[in-house]
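Much of our argument rests on the idea that a fold can be written as discrete symbols. Part of our work consisted of pairing the sequence of a single chain with a tokenised description of its backbone. No coordinates are needed to read the tokens, only the vocabulary itself. The record that follows shows the chain in one-letter code together with its fold in token form.
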Amino acid sequence: MNLNKFTKETVTIAFYIVYILLAGLCYELLPGDTKTPNMGVLLFFLLIPIGLTYALVHAIKHLNSNVSYVKCFLIHVTVWISIIAFLTSYKQ
């Protein structure tokens, strides 16, 4: 599959959608208890460093090239604000 036909914004959105759906699917299908959380919980916790690393890569590419990654930054910020808002409302 040639990724050159997809825009960087589409790849960023697809990454977050696929990753969150995979983590949710693992959370629902793989059992766990309070002592041993399941794979979905682990994937949700790993989203923090993976997402930040992905945003950092976009920041480095933005600074070192003539290509603008502002839309990708907006996608990262929107996803993280949405996740924080969802978790905050889920807690209450």
In short: The radius of gyration is 15 Å. Residues 39-64 form the longest helix (26 residues). The helical segments are 8-29, 39-64, 70-91. The chain has a mean pLDDT of 89.
